[in-house]
Amino acid sequence: MNILDTLLWGVLPYVVMAVLAGGLIWRYKYDQFGWTTRSSQLYESRLLRIASPLFHFGILAVLVGHIVGLVIPKSWTEAVGMSQHAYHFLALSIGTVAGVGTLVGIVMLIVRRRLTGPVFMATTGNDKFMYIMLLGAILAGLATTVLAVFDPNTVDYRETVSPWFRSLWVLQPDVGAMAAASTSFHVHVLWGMALFAIWPFTRLVHAFTAPLHYLFRPYIVYRTRGSSPRAGSAPVRRGWEPIGTHDRDSGRRRTRPPRERSGSTRVK
C-alpha cells in the first residue's frame, strides 16, 4: 500500500460523494427545467419500446446484484447455509443475464440514436459522453465477471472490494483491502466512480426522480357510460358545459340590445 492507493481508495471515494451530492443540489436549485430525460419517443418509438425496457430492467437487476454483493458480508450467506460455490454460481448466472441484457439494451439505444435522423440531431455532446461512460462501465463489469471465472489469479471481491465498500460508510476506509483486489476490479471501480461524478450533470439525473409514488397512490376508478340509456334513466348529459363568471354573465345582460316586440310600435 502506497500514497497512490491512499488517494484512490481512501480519498477519491469521498470526493466523488461530495461531487455527487453537491451536483444534485446545484442541479435541482438552478436547473429544474433541465432535470429531464429529454425523451425522443416522438421521433421514433418502434425500436425504443424494445431497447428502453431492456436497458432499464437490466440496469435495475445489475444494481440489485451490486447491492447484494457489496453490502451483504460473506459470513451472512454462509450463516444461512449458502455455500461459496452456490453463491458464486447464482451471482454469475443472474449477473451475466442482467449484464448482457443491459449491454444489448444500451447498444440498441446508441444505434437508434445514431441512425434515426431527428434523434441524432437532438443528441448533444453531453449525451455522447454519457453513453461512452455508461457503455464503459457495463463492459468493465462484464469483464470482471468473465475474468473471475476463467482467471485463477483473480482475487475474490467479497474479501477485498466488499469490505472496502462497507468501510467507507463508517468513515474508516480499508485501503489495504481494495489495494489487494485484482486489476479488473480496480478499473471497474474507478470507472464507476467517474460515472457517479458526472451523474448530476447529465440526463442520468432523472434516476433520482423516479415516480415511486405511483406504487403507493390510491386506485383510480374510471366509469364508462353505456352506448344506449336504459328505460327510465336520466338523459345522458355532455361531459362538460361552457360556463362564464357571474360578472361576465351580468355584463352580457347589460350590453344586450332590447328586443322589439313583434306587432307593436311606439309613437311619440
Descriptive overview:
Helices cover 60% and strands 0% of the residues. It has ten helices and no strands. Helix 1 (3-30) runs parallel beside helix 9. The longest helix has 32 residues, at 84-115.
Q: Topology, pairings included?
A:
Blueprint lengths: L2 H28 L17 H24 L2 H6 L4 H32 L1 H5 L3 H26 L10 H8 L6 H5 L3 H16 L47 H10 L13
Please provide a brief summary of the model.
This protein has 268 residues and is mainly α. It has ten helices and no strands. It is globular, with a radius of gyration of 31 Å.
How far from one another are the termini? 116 Å
Number of strands: 0
> What amount of the residues lies in strands?
under 5%
The shape, in one word, is globular
Name its key features:
single chain, 268 residues, mainly alpha, 10 helices, globular
